[in-house]
TrEMBL record:
<dbReference type="InterPro" id="IPR036465">
    <property type="entry name" value="vWFA_dom_sf"/>
</dbReference>
<feature type="compositionally biased region" description="Basic and acidic residues">
    <location>
        <begin position="1"/>
        <end position="10"/>
    </location>
</feature>
<protein>
    <submittedName>
        <fullName>Metal-dependent peptidase</fullName>
    </submittedName>
</protein>
<dbReference type="Pfam" id="PF13203">
    <property type="entry name" value="DUF2201_N"/>
</dbReference>
<feature type="domain" description="Putative metallopeptidase">
    <location>
        <begin position="86"/>
        <end position="179"/>
    </location>
</feature>
<dbReference type="InterPro" id="IPR025154">
    <property type="entry name" value="Put_metallopeptidase_dom"/>
</dbReference>
<feature type="region of interest" description="Disordered">
    <location>
        <begin position="1"/>
        <end position="30"/>
    </location>
</feature>
Length: 506
């Protein structure tokens, strides 16, 4: 990240209520937004009653929407694809001027889209708008401070930040355009980040202040906000720039699109967890998206840092906090194991399920298939010391709930002893890691039989006190070091995945 210094205006720190100054409205947004009926945006029957006169327009819009979602699933955005997969109701309706994702209080999400608007902007425009809506939902979940959200300048900062990300990730230079009305000229849809930046740069030059470069200006979500607050006359977004800035009765800043906080949190965090898992399985698009979200939320505070930590996003860069509670090592192990079992996921069309959905009048969706071949995991428990039952139970649950995984269990001290979870295992004297390595690599027979599988991952649960070893493929080995143990695998050359297990906590 580029190091930069800002001249912060007094009273504009995130922890204090912003000063009220005169503001200027930035150009942008559709100026031909038709009046819409005041409809409860969670009432599906009422929404479906608001339809264009021409059924062909509805069908064309539906096809554009489906094509856009397919592109997201195949190549453009894992986050967008997963979130819309959780929108089980995707409703064409003129009750919204453009499109919106509604988070209802019952835990459901609805995608609403205006068919006439979608037809006007075409496939590229539809992809932009759908991506924009998902980033709005993520933005709302990340930045929940009420004083911040009450500032109109923050609304504009959100539009600038979101549109910059969408343009960048879709490889676009310009906003989509539409022509509203006969003989009209094409007009951009939404707020143009570069147009806002030009206004910001001119304002600061007039104050004899140094503006940031465009790249630094849009580098973080809160950075955009802080820079806009440096303007002598801060800009605010026009009410018609985005449906999120217009209330159902037409009043500005009313929050007309329902966004139940609990539903938003549930859907967004589930979506991001899926994206992180995809990233650990080797999905480059998912990895790029999640790291971009991590970077853009820099300076967002402890709550956001805890969110990324709980999701294990930092591990995508190899960043692992040294001290974590038991929930964190569980997350670390889940993410690390997923990375060892890396195999691409595939989009498939479920024929039977699709036929049922069509019969019920719903649009069928693509689904994801898990790992393409069965993965083998070997779990080895050191019984030379005490091994808490809670650790064994949780490991059994983790491996058992991972699709496409075949697990093999051994206990070891001086010798290796295969067992089945639930059996009582007893330790003897001494500890020998090399025996486990030899068994895993098929050289050491136990009860007259060699281990004939080639494990994709080996999980060692031990206190670490024994002679160090170097497996043939260290990258496949995961070491969980119990309380007071020696985490030498972390210092080994080459290092192996290693984490401490705080077994005193449940």
């Amino acid at each position: 990240m580029t190091t930069r210094q800002r001249k912060e205006p007094a009273g504009d720190s995130p922890g204090r209520r912003p000063r009220r100054r005169a503001s200027a409205r930035v150009a942008g947004g559709g100026r031909h937004v038709a009046a819409r009926p005041a409809v409860d945006l969670t009432d599906r029957q009422a929404l479906l009653a608001c339809q264009p006169d021409d059924p062909a327009v509805v069908e064309q819009a539906r096809q554009l929407k489906d094509a856009a979602l397919l592109d997201f699933g195949v190549r453009d955005s894992v986050v967008v694809s997963w979130l819309y997969a959780k929108c089980h109701h995707q409703i064409p309706t003129t009750a919204v001027a453009t499109a919106a994702v509604v988070a209802a209080g019952d835990g459901s999400c609805l995608l609403l889209y205006n068919p006439e608007f979608f037809v006007q902007i075409g496939l590229a425009g539809v992809k932009f708008v759908l991506f924009h809506e998902v980033r709005h939902l993520v933005h709302r979940h990340l930045y929940i401070d009420e004083e911040l959200r009450a500032d109109p300048v923050f609304d504009l900062a959100a539009e600038v930040s979101i549109n910059h990300v969408v343009l960048t990730r879709l490889g676009r230079k310009d906003l989509p355009t539409r022509v509203a009305g006969p003989g009209g000229k094409p007009e951009p849809v939404g707020v143009d980040p570069r147009a806002v930046y030009r206004r910001y740069r001119a304002d600061l030059a007039q104050q004899q202040l140094t503006p940031l470069s465009y790249a630094d200006f849009v580098a973080t979500d809160l950075g955009v906000y802080h820079e806009l607050k440096r303007m002598s006359t801060p800009l605010v977004a026009p009410a018609d720039a985005c449906v999120h800035l217009v209330a159902a009765d037409g009043a500005e800043r009313g929050g007309g699109v329902p966004a139940d906080p609990e539903t938003v949190a549930l859907v967004v965090e589930a979506t991001m967890a899926e994206a992180v898992r995809a990233a650990h399985r080797g999905n480059g698009v998912a990895r790029g998206e999640m790291l971009d979200l991590l970077d853009r939320s820099e300076g967002g505070g402890e709550r956001i840092s805890r969110l990324w930590g709980s999701l294990g996003v930092g591990a995508l860069r190899g960043e692992t906090p040294k001290t974590r509670r038991v929930e964190w090592w569980k997350r670390w192990l889940a993410d690390t194991l997923a990375s060892k079992l890396r195999d691409g996921t595939r989009l498939v069309y479920p024929k039977k399920q699709g036929a049922v959905l069509l019969a019920l009048g719903h649009d069928p969706m693509l689904s994801r298939r898990g790992q393409e071949r069965t993965k083998v995991v070997l779990i080895a428990l050191d019984t030379s010391g005490s091994m808490p039952d809670a650790v064994v139970e949780w490991l059994t649950s983790l491996v058992g709930q991972t699709d496409g995984v075949e697990s093999h269990w051994v206990s070891f001290d001086g010798v290796v002893m295969p067992f089945v979870p639930g059996e009582r295992v007893h330790g003897g004297g001494g500890t020998n890691f090399q025996n486990v390595v030899d068994y895993a690599e098929g050289r050491l027979p136990v009860n007259g039989r060699r281990f004939e599988e080639r494990p994709d991952a080996v999980i060692m649960v031990t206190d670490g006190y024994a002679a160090e070893v170097t497996p043939a493929d260290p990258d496949r080995w995961i070491w969980l070091i119990t309380d007071g143990g020696d985490d030498w695998p972390d210092r080994h050359h080459p290092p192996m995945a290693c984490h401490r297990v705080h077994t005193g906590e449940r």
